[in-house]
Fold these 4 entries.
Entry 1:
Amino acid sequence: MTHFQCRPTFASSNGPKLRKPNKTAMLYRFLLRAGFISFKDLSLPPKRTCGAFLRMGGKPERLTRHNSEVRDPAPLDTQTVVYAARDRDGSGPWLWALDVNRKTTQRISSGLEKYISVSASADGRHMVATESSPIPSLWSVPILNRVAEERDAKPYPVGTVRALGPRFGGTSLFYLSSRGTGDGLWRFQDGQTTEIWNGSDGALLDPPAVSADGRRVAISLRRNGKLTLHLATSEGSQLQPLAESIDTRGAADWSPDGQWIVTGGTVTDSPGVFKIPVNGGKPVRLTTGQASNPVWSPAGNLIVYAGENVGFFSPLLAVRPDGTPVKLPSIEVLREGIRARFLPDGSGLVHMKGLLSEQSFWLLDLATMKSRELTHLNNAGAIRSFDISPDGNIIFDRSRGNSRVVLIDLPANPPKP
């Protein structure tokens, strides 16, 4: 099976049927059984943060510390919750078990299989999970006067089988790939492929930020329990941390003059968009509130970013480089992945619409503030990131297939984390 939009879930403990989940009801039932909430709390939504379960009722209490998205909490009993999440080094996602009383977690899947969803039967004796091993590759589609179709899309070979998170800079294309561990950074230039950063030294979760001339890159590495930006040359040398006070969120971007980097992140529990001087100095806060994946217009006058999550989507918001808000038409993009990039001349913003397996590209004309559809791709696969090439083509990563539902039988008394 391929491209689940919801996780498979047991209908009951009496049979093998699967159904579409009611995640809210399931989590409420567990919280009630575990004593985290009372019936008077049922008007409140279940609390889940990026990489953390929170106890409800009274002061929130953090129970997990993955610092990445936690998916599909499923109770096995009143003490144990299973879920899917990445490890702290960025590898995975794997299956985990949380002991809610001892506040301990343990990875319960082994091997290289990755799991993107999980559910459990009512009696806690069985789990069903989505095992995924997609291989992303790069594709190209032109921006035309008509809507481009599947026949217009072509593979964009770069010399490695796995390729995602494309970013252009100078005469080079940078992208993420791996040799069986976490994703590292690679450069494709003049037909040659070079590894810039080995994922075994720290997996990369997001595309790099690449200076306009392609001479410098910025990547986020997990250090001391948070994601910190690091600068390096295009050869991967002279690695140094940047703005260590910011726990970054999503991808970053360079200013056209190469003097600043803009990123979403958090400083002392206060999220926002920050611009960071690359030659030294304190970060400058531009916004307050959840923000990720900012992009800086090549014209230099506009920064667009993804705002606070609303369900599966986030609104596209914009500010000037001095922090002045700019009103955009109402555009919502999937919260995961890089969903907006500027045209090379800064005249328009290419953005994505639709669910993960039904993504299409649109172009917002920044002069008229009107959008038109650019692509209608059949069997698009899961697109997570893209960039615009210097000649105006859309270069995007695409993952297809290689997913299946697996049934896992548990012992009568499964080990606790």
Entry 2:
Amino acid sequence: MLIAIDEHWIAPGVTSALKTQARPDESLAFNEMGDHRQRLEDLGEFRIAAMDAQGIDISILALTPTGTQPLSSEQARRLSSAANGTAMAVVSKYPIRFRALSTLPVSCPMHGYFASDEDRQKFTSANAAALYGLERVGPPYLVVGPAMTLNETIDPIGRELQ
């Protein structure tokens, strides 16, 4: 069995919000090259056909870096929730082919994000979560779930989930 880990996808709402930043992430330019946007937005049959052509059995989906991290607290919360909902819908539709990493709105106080039962359910339904390394956040971490083995540096998130 071949499992592809950290398979990027884009959420148009997140991409639009990131482009409005004073200093948009330079990696956004790659999403516009050739057919990248079309391929990154596809979370269905075309992606599965590409997986089959490459012999991939399961893809673990991850929102493209930088996720929602540079966004304001409210934007990050709203767009993370929407992205996590999209990812979970794809996993539900194609449970044999996809798993997903949640995206966390790190600019949002965790008690604010996890106050909603819906957001908490979307987050804990994922296989894990990805935190992207940015200057204000620190090195990249993979947060393992659902048991949530957390790095000491991001322990405040762990305490919130317990």
Entry 3:
Amino acid sequence: MQTIQRRVAAALGAGAIAITLNVLALWSADLIHLRTAHGGLLKLLVRLAGVSAPQSGAFNIAFHVMAGLGMAIVYGLLLEPLWRGPPLLLGLVYAAAVWIANAFVVLPFIGEGIAGSATLGIAGILWFAAAHTVFFVALSLLFDKMIEAEWNHHRQRTGRGSDNREGQPTNSGNPTAP
């Protein structure tokens, strides 16, 4: 499988698991009647487009899942290849960047205040931040494992033990290589 296809497949697999964990964390807050941020990006896009969105839970969850998978693809194709540190740290950095954009741009623009403070209590803000972070950390760790597993499978199948994770030849077999 080509490198881009492998990365998209790993991003979608990791993203699907990560968004499931995120949704479960948000739904668990609903079970204890703790209000958290819901649908801020959708509300922003609807407002900017000047249209109305269907008012159904199924549509909202579908949008949430698609947004999560989109962020997973951005991670797999753009962010992770440029990163030279541990996957956990990249997950935390990505989580912080998106949370800051949501807290200081999206939510204030739709009238919910900084980090949702106009409509949420501190417990709701913190729960949302934790559920949000779970998504990005799970995404980064799972993506790393999925790419590693694909790379190992590729090496075993082709007998090429000196390829890097992107499938490119390396000089690792040469003891004099830098």
Entry 4:
Amino acid sequence: MTTLPKIKTSSWSTPLPPDHLRIGISRSVPRGPRLAGYKVMHELAPGSWFNSVSAAEYDRRYREEILARLDPLKVAAKIRDLAGGRVAVLLCFEQAGRGEWCHRAMVATWLSKAIGEPVPEYGFENLPQDRHPLLPRELRAVPLAMAVNRRYLRDFVAELIQAPKKPGKPA
């Protein structure tokens, strides 16, 4: 059984081993001396709103305007085809470890769910998919107990706000 090459994410500025192929998914590529042999997938680049909205709005727009019109299995096949047997590395400008977030983490999560294998950040392969270092904090998975408590608290508050007032009782 042959193993399909892995797909990873990284920054344009991160040095990569020779068996890794750079595939840009940013709106542009680095200026100055060109990186030899890179490919570009414009269909995964964010919209013109990319640097003017909150992380939550970005996530909503990116999913609705970019990812929703794409088939993740076809995108994964194209990535593997472009890589030609090498490890495909989807690139943008943000660097891991600087407290920033990037759409490539959203792409990684989207692809991972479709292909059933992790799409990690290069150098952070030990992290679970839902802890990708460039995933916005509010989009990272929370422990089940916290999620249950947050859901309970949200629902409880919603019920209080929407509860009909009983006649004869002051508001």
